[in-house]
Structures are given as C-alpha cells and as structure tokens.
Write the structure tokens for this entry.
Amino acid sequence: MASLRTVLSPRWTPARRSPSRVLELGGAVQSRPPVLQRPDRGAVPCRSQSGSTPPKGEDTILKWVLLLIPGVTFGLGTWQVKRRRWKMELIDELARRTQAPPIPLPVDPQALQALEYRRVRVRGNYDHTQELYVLPRSPVDPHREAREAGRLTSSGENGANVVTPFRCTDLGITILVNRGYVPRQKISPHTRMKGQVEGEVEVVGVVRLTETRKPFVPNNDVEQNRWHYRDLGAMARVTGAEPVFIDADFGSTVPGGPVGGQTRVTLRNEHMQYILTWYGLSAATSYLWFTKFVKKL
C-alpha cells in the first residue's frame, strides 16, 4: 500500500546528478545551468534574472531636453519685462495727450489720424435735434481716470453718452461731439431741457477715432438710435456731419446737461502678473532639474 501511495502522489524531485556538461564554443568554456526535474513534466531550467538599466545616452538627451523648460520660461519672463516697459510708456503718452493744452482742431483728416487722445478746441453751435445715444454706459470720474490711466474705473450706474452734431463756425464744418454721460432716466432730451445749450459756445475735447465692433458687442441699431460702439462712418451718414469725433472735457459740463470728461484710457496692463508667473515657473523647474541631475552627483 505504501508503494501505491507513493506512485499516486506527484512531487518534485531533483534531477539525478550527472557529471556537469561543458560546452566549448569558439574556444570559450561555458557550463550548462543546473536543471530541476519534475516527474510529470520533465526538466525545468533555472534562469538567472538581472535588472535592466536605460542606456546612458538616453538619460543624457533627456537631461538637456528638460533644461529647455526653465530656459524658455525665463525668456518669456524677460520678454514680458520689455512689454511692460513699452506699455507703461504708451500709457504715459496717452495721459500727457489728454492733459496737454488744447490746440485748434485740424481740418485735414490725415492729421487727425495721429491726434487720437489729443486735446483740441472748437467753436460753434449744437444741433440738439439729431442727438445720438451710445449705450449702455457707466459714468467715468475724469479726475480718477487721469490719475489711473490704463485701469477700468466705473460705478454701478447705467445710462448713455449723448453725441450731438456741432457746427464749427470757425472751420465751416459739422463734427460730432460726445457731450458726456446722462443717467438712464435722463436720456430723453425733454427731461434735461435746462442743459440743452443754445447759441455759440467753445468746446474743448479729446479727439477719438472710429471703432470696430468687438466680440459679443451688439450691432448698432440705427433705426432705434441705439449705438453700442463708435462707428463714425454710420454716425456721419445719419447726421450729415463729417466723420470727426471729440469727447468734450469735464469743463464743458453745464447744469442739467450731460457730464463731460467721459474719455476712457483703457489699455490693459497685466504684464506684472505674467512676469511673476514666468519667472516663478523658471525658478521652480530650475530647482527640480538641479535636484534631479546635478545634486545627486
């Protein structure tokens, strides 16, 4: 019985020892690895395992490719420093133009192209029967706008800017003058008759050029007299004026009329945030690169 159980129960048994076999290949002597033998499946060779390491050349290429990240981000930060310097000079130039002494309005349209935000002086009469309304608009504090050129400053109020044809007696042409801001309940001229200036007046204002419609800004509704952006060609056709436009300054304000000085110097200046972002990324990736490839040496 014992011999029968022995035959029926499978088990691992080491192979019978035999003299080690030696192979000669090209003069080199190699010994064959030992084997384990299992009665039901035959011999199983023993294989040695060794860890694989990436080639040194690949590691060197990766090292220098990753170094591009801090280099590129440092370059972008330096570029933003130059952009910020240029933007600050442009904002200073616009602020000087809006505060410079006024000059006579030139008639030559080509000369006007180089005078945006330049203060000019005109003399003539308003034609209140052809007012245009640019809306919705919020009031601008002219003193704050002069101090903080380049920032958007406004209150929660809502209304419109009143644009009125102005017959220049000294030039013999009719231009468009943005007299200023009125609240929503004062858009109708019948609610502000006291501010409808009659007779010849002198107006000092800032030259503005035409605008193109920005994304998400509605189209101008000429029939309903609702203007959302400054389209000088269309405004001139409706009123019969020349496509010349000025924003009247705060000094042109009369009691009960629109509040002048509604010129916005709205140049975005967020370059300092970009500078900190790019230089921060450059410093962080430089540190990681150093600890990975240099410090471990």
About this structure: The first strand starts at residue 22 and ends at 25. Confidence is low (pLDDT under 50) at residues 1-15, 18-29, 149-154. The chain is about 30% helix and 20% strand. Residues 68-99 form the longest helix (32 residues).
